[in-house]
Amino acid sequence: MAVREGWQGRFFEDFEVGDVYRHPLGRTITASDNAWFTLVTMNTNELHFNDHYSAHTEFGKQLVNSALTLAIVVGLSVTDVSRNAVANLGWEKVRMPHPVFIGDTLYAESVVLTARASESRPYAGIVSVATQGLNQDGDVVLTYERSVMIYRKDAPQLQEIFPEAKEPIERLGPQ
Fold this sequence. Notes:
This protein is of the alpha+beta class. The protein has 3 helices and 6 strands, in the order E-E-H-H-H-E-E-E-E. It has a single domain (12-155), classed as Thiol Ester Dehydrase, Chain A, CATH 3.10.129.
């Protein structure tokens, strides 16, 4: 029986300037998501948790907390961009050109801007991407640039992480 690795994410060698990644998952934002994130982060702007207050604003309803929008879009990009990150190095040019509301579904796509070997860490490289978050209608709700240090495929830190099972899985396979 052959052991096949699951998707491991991209390593430094896999990034090419100009490549576009349409991240595979979408995420619908619920009222619970927004209220929880807003309150746990101590954001006291009632636009994010008070329907009565929000109804009196120009939006007429609650806005999704912008930090939650950023967190979700970054999260949607992890499978393609930073699954193998050593560390995030920074975010720049964060813009939110369109409001996000409860019930919106967010999607994300990224383009590789730069990719270079790390001068201080031979097991990694530095990749910069521009990412945009879209709602279900294709409206751009968020844009940013992000720099990430990414492991190389042969990085010693990633070797032999998966534990050996005390009982091989083959025993559960076809008999």
